[in-house]
Amino acid sequence: MDKSTKCALCPQKAVVHLKYFNRKLCKQHFSELTQDRIRKNISKNELVDKNNRVAVAVSGGKDSTTLLYSLANFAEKFPIELVGITIDEGIEGYRSESLKVVEKNYKKLGIEYKILRYENEVGKPMDEIVKKDQRLPCSYCGVFRRDLLNKAALEVDADKIATGHNLDDEVQSILMNYIRGDFSRLARTGTKTAADTGFVQRIKPLSVVPEKEIALYAMLNNFEVYWGECPYSHEAFRSEIRDTLNRWEERSPGTKYQIYNGAENLKELLKGAIGGAILFECEICGTPSPSVICKSCEMKKEVR
Ligand SMILES: [Zn+2]
Ligand SMILES: [Zn+2]
């Protein structure tokens, strides 16, 4: 067992021990590795093309803030244009606070941005919606947020939407879909969505970086991050999967990467076996939908 507290690559003090890699790294070498992973994920999987206009979904948390700075860094060497998109769900004390952080970061980087609010788009802020309905707020929020991110991206004329999903988020979703037997959704997860779905294509440049490492990276780089958690957040199944995965990872380091890589391969096989869903145009808003009225419009009606 290596008891040294030094970086494996230089004499500096190690700040992290990557067990799956059996390596201790200093601040500089850890940061370089993280940047390198993100850059390689973008180029290897062709997440962006030259002269793309990329809408970056930013909530102010560690993941999306790291995403914003990473893409700004990437854009210095590769010709892409960035525009921030942020959804204000209308959650007093949570989103109101994180929005301040988000706007500071946009301004610091000199990135144009657009904020869409539930109050205007859905008709009510989340604080009002939860008062009226006992159903899990996350189910509403997930549908509305996805819908509004797409709308915002169309309004700013973006070619892609980049989101801050990390390795843990991805692996949790893979297992959840697997356990539910939802293979068509499993085939649609991954570091980028298909280009021909009728929605703006989504890319996940951070999908190869574990959550803990993103938190560390954001701290070491002094990014201004909002660390608060949504007061309505309650996803029991996901939390259970998260805990289980962390236990597996602790016992056999590398498990998360193995599941992730396995699913990437499986996805290729599934693509041929599972045909795309037949999509209509929603009668109310015109977005592609498997039913004549899309989920978002249906939920908006309920909420109003
Ligand atoms: Zn080092
Ligand atoms: Zn609709």
Automatic annotation (TrEMBL):
<keyword id="KW-0408">Iron</keyword>
<feature type="binding site">
    <location>
        <position position="63"/>
    </location>
    <ligand>
        <name>ATP</name>
    </ligand>
</feature>
<dbReference type="InterPro" id="IPR035107">
    <property type="entry name" value="tRNA_thiolation_TtcA_Ctu1"/>
</dbReference>
<dbReference type="InterPro" id="IPR014729">
    <property type="entry name" value="Rossmann-like_a/b/a_fold"/>
</dbReference>
<dbReference type="Pfam" id="PF01171">
    <property type="entry name" value="ATP_bind_3"/>
</dbReference>
<feature type="binding site">
    <location>
        <position position="297"/>
    </location>
    <ligand>
        <name>Zn(2+) 2</name>
    </ligand>
</feature>
<dbReference type="Pfam" id="PF22082">
    <property type="entry name" value="TtuA_LIM_N"/>
</dbReference>
<dbReference type="InterPro" id="IPR000541">
    <property type="entry name" value="Ncs6/Tuc1/Ctu1"/>
</dbReference>
<feature type="binding site">
    <location>
        <position position="7"/>
    </location>
    <ligand>
        <name>Zn(2+) 1</name>
    </ligand>
</feature>
<keyword id="KW-0479">Metal-binding</keyword>
<keyword id="KW-0411">Iron-sulfur</keyword>
<protein>
    <submittedName>
        <fullName>TIGR00269 family protein</fullName>
    </submittedName>
</protein>
<keyword id="KW-0460">Magnesium</keyword>
<feature type="binding site">
    <location>
        <position position="169"/>
    </location>
    <ligand>
        <name>ATP</name>
    </ligand>
</feature>
<dbReference type="GO" id="GO:0016740">
    <property type="term" value="F:transferase activity"/>
</dbReference>
<feature type="binding site">
    <location>
        <position position="29"/>
    </location>
    <ligand>
        <name>Zn(2+) 1</name>
    </ligand>
</feature>
<dbReference type="InterPro" id="IPR011063">
    <property type="entry name" value="TilS/TtcA_N"/>
</dbReference>
<dbReference type="InterPro" id="IPR056369">
    <property type="entry name" value="CTU1-like_ATP-bd"/>
</dbReference>
<dbReference type="GO" id="GO:0000049">
    <property type="term" value="F:tRNA binding"/>
</dbReference>
<keyword id="KW-0862">Zinc</keyword>
<feature type="binding site">
    <location>
        <position position="164"/>
    </location>
    <ligand>
        <name>ATP</name>
    </ligand>
</feature>
<dbReference type="GO" id="GO:0002144">
    <property type="term" value="C:cytosolic tRNA wobble base thiouridylase complex"/>
</dbReference>
<feature type="domain" description="tRNA(Ile)-lysidine/2-thiocytidine synthase N-terminal">
    <location>
        <begin position="54"/>
        <end position="242"/>
    </location>
</feature>
<dbReference type="GO" id="GO:0005524">
    <property type="term" value="F:ATP binding"/>
</dbReference>
<keyword id="KW-0547">Nucleotide-binding</keyword>
<feature type="binding site">
    <location>
        <position position="87"/>
    </location>
    <ligand>
        <name>ATP</name>
    </ligand>
</feature>
<dbReference type="GO" id="GO:0051539">
    <property type="term" value="F:4 iron, 4 sulfur cluster binding"/>
</dbReference>
<feature type="binding site">
    <location>
        <position position="10"/>
    </location>
    <ligand>
        <name>Zn(2+) 1</name>
    </ligand>
</feature>
<feature type="domain" description="2-thiouridine synthetase TtuA-like N-terminal LIM">
    <location>
        <begin position="6"/>
        <end position="30"/>
    </location>
</feature>
<dbReference type="InterPro" id="IPR054306">
    <property type="entry name" value="TtuA-like_LIM_N"/>
</dbReference>
<feature type="binding site">
    <location>
        <position position="26"/>
    </location>
    <ligand>
        <name>Zn(2+) 1</name>
    </ligand>
</feature>
<keyword id="KW-0004">4Fe-4S</keyword>
<dbReference type="GO" id="GO:0002143">
    <property type="term" value="P:tRNA wobble position uridine thiolation"/>
</dbReference>
<keyword id="KW-0067">ATP-binding</keyword>
<feature type="binding site">
    <location>
        <position position="285"/>
    </location>
    <ligand>
        <name>Zn(2+) 2</name>
    </ligand>
</feature>
<feature type="binding site">
    <location>
        <position position="282"/>
    </location>
    <ligand>
        <name>Zn(2+) 2</name>
    </ligand>
</feature>
<dbReference type="GO" id="GO:0046872">
    <property type="term" value="F:metal ion binding"/>
</dbReference>
<keyword id="KW-0808">Transferase</keyword>
<feature type="binding site">
    <location>
        <position position="294"/>
    </location>
    <ligand>
        <name>Zn(2+) 2</name>
    </ligand>
</feature>
<feature type="binding site">
    <location>
        <begin position="57"/>
        <end position="59"/>
    </location>
    <ligand>
        <name>ATP</name>
    </ligand>
</feature>
